[in-house]
């Protein structure tokens, strides 16, 4: 099974890019972030024509997440991250698909920092850590993926950190939260299979960063200990970033052999 995560950066504006990627790569499950559209504007019919059923939580003008499946409709588990009933940002979905629990998230960017946006990022991250603890210890196979808005390291996850030192994505507090999350027992799929390689998933629109391959890795797929033995491959569909009118992210994916699950499939 192939599961991918993709920050589409506006599903209405970039629907042709999304459909072209889905038609060419055919992931079994695709988790989308930054829909930037209300629920009523979600292109469910266009996706269904390609064989995908969807679960989504939109938000007009910003945020918004969705889970697409070629194995029937995703079964909703959660439509928000627990811990703050007053938080109305559309940033988290959790669903069951073919015996897997799949969580799709769009973690707050946090800029500018310091300030209330960075405080919100860290508070949201704390809520994620609390909720993820149970997911990691679950006896079910669990995958948590999305745009985490965290660059884990200077050495391998960014082209050059010097001009990004004040950015929320590289702050020690953001990275400390990431490390605490991983310490629960999650496998960072892309890094696990590429331990010494620079791998990027995001290239912003400024200063020809895409043309110069001046990117960073902020889109991640995490596997709990039940699912981790199924990991076969992981990669980035870089070609998508090079298309006209592209998102500043490229889809990131894992290949899983579910016959390796306890009891087989």
UniProtKB/TrEMBL annotation:
Source superkingdom: Bacteria
Endonuclease/exonuclease/phosphatase domain boundaries: 4-249
InterPro entries found in the cross-reference section: AP_endonuc_1, Endo/exonu/phosph_ase_sf, Endo/exonuclease/phosphatase, ExoIII-like
Short name of any one Pfam family annotated for the protein: Exo_endo_phos
Main enzyme class: hydrolase
PROSITE patterns: AP_NUCLEASE_F1_4
Coiled-coil region(s): none
GO molecular function: double-stranded DNA 3'-5' DNA exonuclease activity
Annotated keywords: Hydrolase, Magnesium, Metal-binding
Stated family: Belongs to the DNA repair enzymes AP/ExoA family.
Protein name as it appears in the record: Exodeoxyribonuclease III
Biological source species: Ramlibacter aquaticus
């Amino acid at each position: 099974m192939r599961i991918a995560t993709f920050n589409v950066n506006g599903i209405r504006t970039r629907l042709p890019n999304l459909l072209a990627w889905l038609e060419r790569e055919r992931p079994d499950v695709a988790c989308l972030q930054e829909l930037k559209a209300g629920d009523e504007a979600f292109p469910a019919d266009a996706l269904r024509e390609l064989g995908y059923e969807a679960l989504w939580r939109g938000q007009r003008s910003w945020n918004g997440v969705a889970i697409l499946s070629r194995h029937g409709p995703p079964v909703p588990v959660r439509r928000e991250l627990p811990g703050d009933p007053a938080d109305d940002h559309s940033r988290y979905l959790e669903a069951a698909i073919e015996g897997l629990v799949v969580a799709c998230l769009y973690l707050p960017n946090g800029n500018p920092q310091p300030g209330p946006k960075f405080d919100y990022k860290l508070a949201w991250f704390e809520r994620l850590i609390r909720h993820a603890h149970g997911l990691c210890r679950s006896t079910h196979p669990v995958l948590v993926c999305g745009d985490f808005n965290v660059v884990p390291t200077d050495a391998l996850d960014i082209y050059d950190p010097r001009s990004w030192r004040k950015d929320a994505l590289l702050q020690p507090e953001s990275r400390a939260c990431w490390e605490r999350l991983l310490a629960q027992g999650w496998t960072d799929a892309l890094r696990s299979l590429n331990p010494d390689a620079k791998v990027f998933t995001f290239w912003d629109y400024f200063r020809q960063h895409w043309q110069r391959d001046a990117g960073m890795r902020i889109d991640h797929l995490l596997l709990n200990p039940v699912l981790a033995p199924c990991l076969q491959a992981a990669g980035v569909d870089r070609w998508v970033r090079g298309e006209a009118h592209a998102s500043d992210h490229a889809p990131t994916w894992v290949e899983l052999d579910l016959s390796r699950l306890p009891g087989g499939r």
